[in-house]
Design a protein that fits this description.
0% strand, 57% helix, 4 helices, mainly alpha, single chain, 70 residues
Amino acid sequence: MLRDDKAADADDLVSRFLNIKHEINTPLALLGLLAWNQLPASLRNMNCIATFKRHLKTILFKAAYGVADK
């Protein structure tokens, strides 16, 4: 399920998290990291929280209602 270190992106939080060798106390922590890694890099790299929220809301709306990009 998880990619190995060589194939992992530089922004892949799951690989970084697992490489720390800390025990994951809750599966929710891992699910959050996996969800973050599935976001487009352009969204993950945004500096403005308001812009991030607006674009995230748009992505989630499109995913929930099956709206395709033109």
